[in-house]
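User: Structure please.
Assistant: Input sequence and predicted structure:
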Amino acid sequence: MTLTELRYVLAVARFQHFGRAAQYCHVSQPTLSVGIQKLEDRLGLTIFHRSRSGVQLTAEGEEVVRRAQQIVEMADNLRAWSRNTAQTQSGLLRLGGIFTVTPYLLPALIPKLRQTLPDVPLRLDEDYTANLRRKLRRGELDVIIVARPFEEPDCTIIDLYDEDFIAVVPKAHPLAKVEQLTLDEMAKHRLLLLGPGHCFRDQILALCPQCQSAVDDELDEVIQGSSLATLTHMVTSGIGVTVLPATAQNQHEHSGDLLCFKQFAAPVPRRRVCLVYRHSFARHAVAEKLAQIIRQLRLPGTSAVTQA
């Protein structure tokens, strides 16, 4: 059994396709297939079901992939440590983040990161929370930035900041004159939300029973968009009203002549943003330094979180 064979298994499990897995591993497909067959023979079990319709993990294969991921990650960590213990903090950091955080965090974060950790370039990946969780678990990402609630075994979770929600309405809209605005009041009008899969949508629905009822009843008053920028443009055009995380306001203030950004009445709806990395990630210090940098940014519309 070799690390190379284990990497072949992880690649096929990831792509569910022998050809794409071979390309990813920079080998021919026959070489990859022979390597996996050798491993299956040594283990005395079948890792993948092969058929014309595709490749699927067997029940035993699921466990093989889980253990292979741990072994490969431990080997990678050992290799990093062996190069030079004093320099293990340098090198590429694979950072993932949700769609409603990274566009507003990165412009402030990247200059500070380059100044503080110049030897740690970022490879960025925006995705849904569920996909980021899976990529982190598989070792495809080192660190992810998501919103609570979030729990994952064998991971460290560092709370970064609390972020207020703000209302966005056309300047001529009746809600622009409401002094004590609430989510329930917003739900009485044509509400624009992100589509299913976005945790920001889920947070709004969890905080607003009337919003949830409108979605459940598939009312015309609820319209979905693909991004916060799209929702804001729709509000600008007069289609409806929406809710943004406070950090998004600065990027849309160019529409200030047409839009009204309003604070919600107390208790102000908000979310908690956090950073997550695996316990097995060798460069704990880099992840924790990244969290420290983000917390020190004090982004507009956010408040500090005191760690327990």
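The chain has two domains: 3-82, 86-307.
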